[in-house]
């Protein structure tokens, strides 16, 4: 008889109201996999996009999944069982991961559940200095900051450009982080500071005290002044927001500098960038247990910290997605899984 668990499943695309908390078959750990009893699951933008059917994408890119599917990539929990061919993890270990991303981008990575099977290569021991809630808020955001700023960590084809993304040296450089109050942004501020950069944080005013506390040397409240009207002679801009008019940041970057776009869709300033010798680059974040272990040491030592905006029980998934759509989040939204 199939063992069951609670999970949040989609039976159709739509708004937050289509998320259903219900019984689902419990997965098993196959060869090379670890079954994790989930204690907490993080919420990320791709979860919202998939729930909505990726309607913003061209029709040929939109998913055609088999329903029901389970959303979510980021988990922290306890090893429940270990599949064949797995070493380095034992039943009872506290672990965290970003699960099968972007491989399961269009069909859901199944983290909004009591149990999830995870390829061992994507898993890392949870830093002992943080709890499961903090750990579940970490993987996608921290791996994004890490792969943009520190080490790409793979040689997979880049869906956004013809060349591999390459981080740039940060020591003694000036780095502007746009969207610094969000999940990726507040970690990018800390990672850049750790590598010796002077950081300018751009966010709404309510985030100023937090971001200065995380290491920002300068703060720009975009509700009062445009970043491009204030900042100048910046070596690197990392824009975590995307949307219209990303080209505006080119005017604040030194010739020979770089503009890193977490969400590059719609950027149209490549000719202007080439004239100013500014490298424009993006990449798709990918699951990587080795990098989570490496970055986890910084969480363990409190060199960087993860900020949690709010938590929800898994049964309140619709309310959590409603909150995510409102914006203005400081750090991360996370599900606690009883």
Automatic annotation (TrEMBL):
InterPro entries: ADH-like_N (IPR013154), ER (IPR020843), GroES-like_sf (IPR011032), Lipid_raft_assoc_Zn_ADH (IPR052585), NAD(P)-bd_dom_sf (IPR036291), Quin_OxRdtase/zeta-crystal_CS (IPR002364). GO terms for molecular function: oxidoreductase activity; zinc ion binding. PROSITE patterns: QOR_ZETA_CRYSTAL. This is Zn-dependent oxidoreductase, NADPH:quinone reductase. Pfam families: ADH_N, ADH_zinc_N_2. Residues 14-335 form the Enoyl reductase (ER) domain.
